[in-house]
Amino acid sequence: METIVTRWWWIRHAPVFNPTNIIYGQMDLDADVSDSKTFKRLAKILPSDPILFTSDLKRTVLTAKAIARAGANLPRAIEEPAFREQHFGIWQGKNREKLSDTFNNKKHKFWIAPAFERAPEGESFTDLVARVAPAITNITADYAGNDIICVSHGGTIRAALAIALGIGPEKALSIAAANCSLTRIAYITAGQSNEGVWSIETINFDPSI
C-alpha cells in the first residue's frame, strides 16, 4: 500500500518596519530582510524541489525572495490571498498598547484579541481559520506527495496548526510563531484513500539561533 506524504514548510515573514508598534494585520508593510545569516540557514534546510506559496502581502514575497537569494532553490511563488494575516478592521493602524481599552483594559496574552472577537469591519481569528482551511485542503490535494513551502504570517501558521492538531482557535493562539521561524507539518495518506492524518514535525524552529 503506497503511502503519500505531503509536507508543508511554513515560514513566517521577516520582521516588519513598525517603529510605532501599530496593529498592521493586512496592511501591506515592508519587511526587514537584512539578516542574511538567518536566510542562509533557512536555505540550507529547505527542500530542493518544492512548490512555493506566499500570501499576496509584500512582506511574505520579500521574505521568500531573500531566502532564494541566500541559496534556496525556489520556484516562482504562487501568491495566495487566503493565506493573508487576520484582518483587524478599524484597529489596523492603531497603537497596539492602546487597544487594550477596547477590551476593558484586558490584554490578550498571545494575540491582539480573543479568538472569537471580530474586529469592526474585519475578522476574528476564528474567521481566519475558516478562511485558511479550504485553501490548505485544496492545495494539499492538488500537490499531493510534494514539499510545499509557504511563506506567510503568524496568524496563518497558527491557523494551520489548529487544523492539523484539531484544536480550538483560542488554544491555537498560544502557539508561538516567531519571525522567520519554520513550522513543518505533513499530511499522510495511504492507498487510494483521500482521508489522511496530520503529523506535526517541527513548530517554531528559530534559524537565527
Report what the structure shows.
- With 209 residues, the chain is an alpha/beta fold.
- It has one domain: Phosphoglycerate mutase-like (Rossmann fold), CATH 3.40.50.1240.
- Helices cover 27% and strands 19% of the residues.
- It contains five helices and six strands, in the order E-H-E-H-E-H-E-H-H-E-E.
- Strand 5 and strand 6 form a beta hairpin.
- It is globular and about 55 Å long.
**Could you report the average pLDDT, rounded to the nearest whole number?**
93
The helix content is 25-40%
Shape: globular
Structural Rg: 17 Å
Q: Please, how many domains?
A: 1
Task: Order the strands across the largest sheet as they lie in space.
Answer: 3-2-4-1-5-6
Strand count, sense and closure of the main sheet?
Answer: 6 strands, mixed
Distance between the termini: 40 Å
Our count of helices gives 5
Q: Quick one: how many beta strands?
A: 6
CATH class: Alpha Beta
CATH architecture: 3-Layer(aba) Sandwich
H/E element order: EHEHEHEHHEE
Unreliable spans: none
Task: Give the topology.
Elements (H helix, E strand, L loop, with lengths): L2 E10 L23 H10 L5 E4 L3 H12 L8 E2 L45 H18 L4 E6 L1 H12 L3 H4 L9 E9 L6 E9 L4
Parallel strand pairs: 1-4, 2-3, 2-4
Antiparallel strand pairs: 1-5, 5-6
Helix pairs in contact: 1-2, 3-4
Task: Please give a quick description of this structure.
This protein is of the alpha/beta class.
Keyword list:
209 residues; alpha/beta; Rossmann fold; six-stranded mixed β-sheet; 6 strands; 27% helix
